[in-house]
Write a structure and sequence with these properties.
The structure is a homodimer of 409-residue chains.
Chain A: E1 3-8, H1 16-31, E2 35-40, H2 46-57, H3 63-87, E3 92-95, E4 102-104, E5 113-116, H4 119-126, E6 130-134, E7 137-139, E8 145-147, H5 152-164, E9 168-173, E10 194-196, H6 197-205, H7 213-222, E11 226-230, E12 238-241, E13 254-258, E14 261-270, H8 275-285, E15 290-297, E16 302-310, H9 314-328, E17 332-336, E18 339-345, H10 355-365, E19 372-376, E20 379-385, H11 389-399
Helix pairs in contact in A: 1-3, 2-3, 5-7, 6-7, 8-9, 10-11
Chain lengths: 409, 409
């Protein structure tokens, strides 16, 4: 028997009709002879509704109680999906995070899974039942309910797949897989049949919304065969692989973009050891993630440093940086939140030079000025003015020939 | 320290404003120095909303999954009330039925509490916290979520009070206590300061909606001081007592009515041993509760038997009785759902004659015909045509002088 762990997100279970559609899919897969664990999120809109109730009652509500509240969302879905399966003659049993013993640490709102006691799930599977598990939630060592934070249901699915040694973990979403670029921007964008875990990680961290970085990392750690596919359309989706790539693999797998960042610059600071730490340290201490960092040496023995943060942290970061600038007697501070980040990602660039040249040349040809550059082994990111986002993505998609199935280096 | 267990029903926590009002009440009682366990129901309307979702997904949904679904209702309330208490500076912690170890049997939808492991609640109380517990729900020996059925939150409160040896269990409702009659029918009806547990049991089983029979029985078994009071108005409510009554206790405590019953009669059946069983047995076998039963012997060696059932079971019962009549070659079957039951309840009647006479005389004076009579040690019930319900209740209330605080026998 093949054991599948399938995860359906909030949109896929957003109302009774959609829950019925998921039940149809699961019943069919079960009838095909697969053993199944199904992980579901709260019905779309439910988490927001509950969060608004909480904010109304107490804008500074304790995190423990927020988790008690929010975890009811998935509990509703597991019950309804199990009922829908029963109506289709499929024996199913629902489990909350607590019941299935998804043990986490006690960091409410963004708990991490420690282990899963899957004895009961295995027994149900052995008895021929489909097991329906509430995503996004767990329980700490004192039986307090915890939630896993953003992308938590994906994490639950990957963790269940790892614990049970599933043959495949399938993440059903509202897209048909991983694309060479956002199809809303590039109509010629192609769905990728396969992508390496490293590329998927880069794409996730660069703003592709298909999978959260955390669940890809988790899958990579345990080498779980992970497939992203559509909850609404039939199709093979995209498989995340851990093998070496065949020779004809394209250089570049995809173009990613991110318009959720803002840029901050501090100019005319002493060019001395430890200066970057003294600038970025206070920002990190305020729990702000710093993304790209570049430093240029100026002509007069001073230097400039530029970095990007999430747009939500823009004002806070600017305030901190302005204070730092006073202390360091910096010349001035600049900031800009009208920026976008464009990235090309591909394991092929490990062994091939000239990717950066092709990228910069293509952008220059369209008159798109590059403000910052940052590279890793398998990606190159540039920051440009945000009005060039769509043009930039289309230009790069074409420059690397991604509309064709394969491109020889 | 005084330890109070307080229970607030669905109407009392029906929206954010009402949850805030409950939090104010609890915070005040805590500030007065009381240790507190608060049991809450689902916000009013929530259980219906969830039940309708379930019915849409699967009209024959498995009871286990219905319990998983419905139990989210109270879980939402415990989280919100805890948040509201925190906002008032009161340390509070919420517990689901599963977390507080309210262990039940496995009869989903109407589970019975087996025991409560209150160690964690005691520790919280000792640490100065208010403990907020989800009513209506528990967990069986396999960690399946169960619900306790109608009046379940009251049961939870009484059970918590029993387990913890609380000084008082307070059931907050939308009425100010137990009245000598329904104030909507009898404007002169008085709130009773105290009532014996036996009287309360009769009133509950006779249709007074203040408390469910099951929770009163439970409280009586453990002799929990139980008080019914208003969630919306200040006031002492009504205390349910276990002591012998003082001399000046009135003969009659209250008048109850029930208009949810229907009457069935089978006529011309052989007057022989076992005949009542052969008639009532098939009705009970169909899970219909039979309430009043009377039998008259006729002149010709045959007899008639009349009984009442809940109006919801009327059609089913009539069908069964018609089949039985054929088998027994009965003369005919009659039925009537335009009936009402009027009852007078009071422990005083144990030691005093003439209560029935007063009752029958008062009704006769108003031209109200009595169709059936049934008595117990502390109550007399009669069935009348339902159009006489209000007149009958007012007549009896006056006949026993219940508008005055005390009536000497």
């Amino acid at each position: 028997m093949t054991l599948l762990v399938e995860k359906y997100g909030g949109t896929s279970v957003g109302d009774v009709a959609r829950i019925n559609a998921v039940a149809d899919k699961v019943a069919k897969s079960r009838a095909d002879g697969n053993d199944m664990v199904v992980v579901v999120s709260a019905m779309s809109g439910e988490t927001n509704r509950l969060s608004e109730l909480a904010a109304e009652v107490n804008p500074l509500a304790p995190a423990r109680e927020i988790d008690v509240l929010l975890s009811t969302g998935e509990q509703v879905t597991i019950a309804l999906l199990s009922m829908a399966l029963h109506r289709r003659g499929v024996e199913a049993r629902s489990y909350t995070g607590s019941q299935v013993h998804i043990r986490t640490d006690s960091v409410h709102g963004r708990a991490r899974i420690l282990d899963i006691d899957d004895a009961r799930v295995r027994a149900d599977i052995a008895d021929g039942r489909v097991v329906v598990v509430a995503g996004f939630q767990g329980v700490d060592h004192e039986q307090n309910i915890t939630t896993l934070g953003r992308g938590g249901s994906d994490i639950t699915a990957v963790a269940m797949a790892a614990a049970m040694g599933a043959d495949e973990c399938r993440i059903y979403t509202d897209v048909e897989g991983v694309y060479t670029a956002d199809p809303r921007i590039v109509p010629e964008a192609r769905r990728l049949d396969r992508i390496t875990v490293e590329e998927m990680l880069e794409l996730a961290s660069l703003g592709a919304k298909v999978l959260q970085t955390r669940s890809v990392e988790f899958a990579g750690k345990y080498r779980i065969p992970l497939r992203v596919l559509s909850a609404f359309e039939d199709g093979p989706g995209t498989l995340i692989t851990y093998e070496e790539l065949p020779m004809e693999q394209p250089l570049i797998s995809g173009i990613a973009y991110n318009k959720d960042e803002a840029k901050l610059t501090i100019r005319g600071i002493p060019d001395e050891p430890g200066i970057a730490y003294r600038i970025v340290g206070p920002i990190s201490d305020a729990h702000v993630n710093v993304d790209m960092i570049v430093q240029n040496v100026g002509a007069d023995g001073t230097t400039d440093l530029t970095f990007t943060v999430h747009r939500n942290d823009y004002k806070k970061s600017l305030q901190i940086l302005t204070e730092t600038a006073k202390k360091l007697k910096a010349r001035d501070v600049g900031s800009d939140d009208n920026i976008a980040k464009l990235s090309v990602v591909g394991v092929g660039m490990r062994s091939h030079a000239g990717i950066a040249t092709t990228m910069f040349h293509a952008l220059a040809n369209e008159g798109i000025n590059i403000q910052m550059i940052s590279t890793s082994e398998i990606k190159i990111s540039v920051v440009v003015e945000d009005k060039y986002l769509e043009l930039g993505v289309r230009t790069l998609h074409k420059a690397f020939g991604l509309e064709n199935a394969t491109v020889k280096p």
